[in-house]
Design goal:
Layout lengths: L1 H13 L1 H22 L13 H13 L9 E7 L9 H15 L4 E2 L7 H22 L4 H13 L10 E8 L9 H13 L6 E5 L11 H18 L2 H25 L9 H33 L6 H10 L2 H31 L7 H32 L23 H11 L1 H16 L7 E2 L11 H13 L7 E6 L5 H16 L4 E9 L5 E8 L6 H21 L2 E5 L1 H35 L3 H26 L12 E2 L2 H29 L4 H29 L6 H33 L8 H6 L15 H5 L13
Parallel strand pairs: 5-10
Antiparallel strand pairs: 1-3, 1-4, 2-3, 6-8, 6-9, 7-8
Helix pairs in contact: 1-12, 1-13, 2-9, 2-13, 5-6, 8-9, 8-10, 8-22, 9-10, 9-13, 10-12, 10-13, 10-22, 10-23, 12-13, 12-21, 14-22, 15-20, 15-23, 17-18, 19-20, 19-21, 20-21, 20-23, 21-22, 21-23, 22-23
Length: 799
């Protein structure tokens, strides 16, 4: 592989403008595809095969209506000032104006169905009284009991709260489903609503209709700005520092355009997907290019014997080299560092692509989109970057940064990395024990980790969605935000028996712990099926609601035995709860797959049993500590970073594990390959570790700092998943790069000595040989590596 990559890098340097032109055409093609195919992202997060989802489909099939998960509808919540009600004259006048304005909007369909909550509540009370009174009288209830029963049902259906202060009504945007909603239509409706807010009437809104795709940008710019500073310090040159940034921009730009084009081909891409892919693509894109440019610099220093040269002096030496020689150095840098880049990128791709095995469409889309940006980042680093090196030519190390002296790792002078690893070598047991203990202590909060799907109750404080949720919670009760629906199947019973079974279901469900109220809302004409609305006592993200759902499902077995009928529970709350459970179930198997995969891949690369074992266990420690601190900060409210502690999003852990696995293996490869390279070339085990650490520590430190800055910048975003994911990834990089790879790994290797690099002969024979260190590039020049006939190419001056 090293020779193939050498050819690619050398050819890209020679034919720089052809390679650059191809990437420009790719960008134009991707932009055209995005312009022609892009649609709104979907906010649906469902999993095939869930009982609650299948029950939801059956409810729609039997009783009709829109799918609450996909319908382009939203809820408008209106509220009178404290101490007043919606019936007060001034409040009612403003409410009537709001209704009239919405009815006149051309962005909303079925405007005739928009009715103010007071009118709707009065009509509902009349209909409920007329429908229920005969049924309840037939059951022998007194007038007082009938009134109480109707009032109880009305309390969970009425669009006006008991105190008369808050009301709700539904609007439907002019679209087939939520994915087809135009952002400008949402803006037009929300602007209209906001313009009708007065001192007499406050208004908020939530639901599918008001979920729109937001394309960010500020977080990426902040992350790149910090990355630029790190790169300038690393190379001491503004030009060299800019190359990884340019490479990352091309890669991420191509990936994002293709992802947006994909929204026109599938409805599984949600609004989080492009942002997550951008976050990962930027981080790995900058790092992969950094490794290659850094290797290019090292190869140049070694070739011109330019130890401790200033960037300007190094540039002068580089300019003296013939064009063929400069192309050879580009080939060597891609052949050696590029091999590690390919392997590192492959580990990220495998970890992300493996998420598709779980068969969760929205999670698969997120993983494959992130994997796409990583794959493009690898290809860009191997083809576009050496072409830009050729285009820049002798000015690659020009534009020296003042006050920055980038030390040469080939120099005999001790670097900071060498000083650190010498301390670890003196006391490996102390460093190993302290590091492991620290990570284990930080992992303790993970025992209290709670997972939940995103709802309006987890939206940002002060957002319209969160405000609407809170008003409903305060004035209608917490359970109003978490309704459950039971679909009761009479299983072929005659109508009279079926109706008795349905009534029994209402009675038994009402007695379940955590249920505030249950009522029969619909029944088919033949009494084959009935629908029961269940109002819990708690909200959508409350652990008690999950227990209530479990209690209802436990009841079903007894109910079926007693009546011959059966029921299943659905509703958005039940569906989201089931998704969380499914994600929790697959988490441990996925972790096991990833750790085993890490062990096998690293065993192939390093020809060792101990090195992959250390890497896999270190990965497990860094992930555990990351989860622990993430739970502490975002769920428990440590350090006051968030004023709104919430359960972690259900798919955060599994996505985090997949991504961190790939990043951890990146650092393992780039750091330990130089250690192994020294050992196989005759150094003692201890000296090989120290020397390899010296060579790799600076670039790995720079890479880790860049990743941390890119990820940390996303904490500034409003989207909950991205905010927490950015924080968790930054923590994971810190723990894995600085505690695991730069402390635990060298300490353990020092303790193991020669045993660390041993592999049973029978196993060595059957494992494939992978040249990650570029051992095949042993020639002094291109002729020695490829043969003279392959080196006769026309090149420019490269000036």
């Amino acid at each position: 592989m090293a020779k193939l990559l050498y050819r690619i890098g050398r050819s890209a340097y020679f034919h720089r403008w052809r390679f650059i032109a191809v990437w420009i055409l790719i960008l134009i093609g991707a932009a055209s595809a995005a312009a022609g195919l892009m649609k709104n992202t979907s906010e649906s997060m469902t999993i095939p095969g869930l009982e609650s989802l299948e029950t939801n489909d059956k409810v729609m099939e039997i009783f009709g209506g829109d799918d609450s998960l996909e319908a382009p509808t939203g809820t408008v919540v209106v509220r009178a000032p404290e101490g007043q009600t919606l019936e007060d004259t001034d409040v009612k006048a403003d409410l009537d104006k709001l209704i009239a304005d919405l009815q006149g909007s051309d962005k909303i369909k079925d405007t005739d169905a928009i009715v103010d909550p007071l009118t709707a509540a009065a009509g509902m009370e009349q209909q409920l009284t007329e429908a229920k009174t005969p049924q309840l009288k037939a059951q022998g209830l007194s007038d007082r009991e009938i009134t109480a029963a109707i009032d109880a049902d009305l309390a969970d259906l009425s669009p006006v709260s008991d105190n008369g202060r808050t009301g709700t009504f539904t609007v439907t945007l002019d679209a087939e489903n939520m994915q087809d909603i135009k952002p400008e239509d949402v803006t037009a409706v929300t602007d209209l609503i906001d313009s009708d807010k007065t001192g007499n009437l406050d208004i908020s809104y939530n639901g599918n209709a008001f979920q729109t795709m937001e394309v960010g940008g500020s977080s990426e710019l902040i992350g790149m700005a910090v990355a630029a500073v790190v790169l300038i310090i690393t190379f001491g040159s503004f030009v060299a520092a800019g190359l990884p940034l340019l490479s990352a921009i091309v890669g991420v730009g191509t990936g994002m355009l293709l992802i947006y084009a994909g929204t026109g081909l599938t409805d599984t891409i949600n609004s989080t997907t492009p942002t997550l892919a951008t976050m990962i693509g930027l981080a790995v894109g900058i790092d992969y290019a950094l490794f290659i440019v850094s290797r290019f610099r090292n190869e140049l220093i070694a070739r011109v014997k330019g130890e401790d040269l200033e960037p300007k002096e190094l540039a002068a030496k580089f300019k003296e080299l013939p064009a063929q020689e400069r192309a050879h150095l580009a080939g060597l840098s891609v052949g050696k560092a590029g091999s590690a880049v390919v392997f590192a990128g492959l580990t990220v791709l495998i970890a992300l692509a493996a998420l598709s095995i779980i068969n969760i469409p929205f999670l698969t889309a997120m993983a494959l989109a992130a994997a796409l940006t990583v794959a493009i980042a690898v290809v860009v680093a191997l083809t576009f970057l050496p072409a830009v090196l050729g285009a820049v030519g002798t000015k690659v190390f020009a534009a020296r940064a003042p006050w920055v002296k980038a030390p040469d790792p080939e120099s005999e002078k001790p670097t900071m990395g060498l000083k650190w690893v010498r301390q670890v070598r003196k006391r490996p047991v102390v460093f190993l024990g302290a590091s492991v203990l620290a990570l284990l202590l930080l992992a303790i909060p993970v025992l209290n980790m709670r997972l939940a799907m995103p709802t309006d109750g987890t939206a940002n404080l002060g957002s319209p969605q969160r405000t609407a949720y809170e008003w409903i919670d305060e004035d209608f009760g917490a359970g109003r935000n978490a309704p459950l629906v039971a679909l009761v199947d009479g299983n072929g019973q005659d109508p009279e028996t079926a109706q008795k079974s349905f009534a029994e279901a209402v009675t038994e469900i009402s007695q379940v712990d955590g249920v505030k109220h249950a009522q029969l809302t619909q029944m088919t004409e033949d009494a084959g099926y009935a629908q029961i609305l269940i109002t819990p006592t708690t909200g959508a993200t409350d652990e008690v609601t999950s227990e209530t759902l479990e209690n209802l499902r436990t009841l079903e077995g007894t109910y079926s035995d007693n009546t011959g009928a059966s029921f299943a529970v659905t509703g958005v709350t039940a569906i989201y709860d089931d998704i969380s459970d499914r994600l929790s179930e697959v988490l441990i198997p996925y972790v096991a797959i990833v750790v085993v995969l890490a062990f096998i891949l690293l065993m192939v690369v390093f020809r060792s049993l101990w090195v992959p074992l250390i890497a896999a266990l270190g990965f497990a420690l860094s992930v555990a500590a990351t989860f622990g601190v993430t739970v502490g900060i975002w769920q428990e409210g440590w350090f006051g970073i968030t004023d709104d502690p919430q359960p972690l999003l259900s798919f955060l852990p599994i996505m985090l594990i997949g991504i961190v696995f790939g990043l951890a293996m990146d650092y393992q490869v780039f750091l330990v390959t130089r250690m192994r390279e020294g050992y196989v070339h005759g150094k003692t085990a201890g000296n090989a570790v120290s020397n390899g650490f010296k060579h790799g520590a600076r670039v790995v430190t720079a890479a880790a700092l860049i990743m941390m800055s890119v990820f940390s910048a996303f904490i500034l975003m409003d989207e909950a998943l991205i905010k927490v994911m950015g924080s968790a990834l930054a923590l994971a990089v810190f723990f894995d790069a600085f505690i695991v790879r730069m402390t635990i790994v060298p300490a353990t290797l020092f303790l193991l000595g020669d045993r660390a690099w041993k592999l049973p002969k029978w196993l060595d024979r059957i494992l494939p040989k992978v040249d990650v260190e570029g051992e095949g590039l042993v020639g002094e020049d291109a002729d020695a590596i490829l043969g003279a006939k392959d080196t006769k190419e026309k090149v420019g001056t490269g000036a």
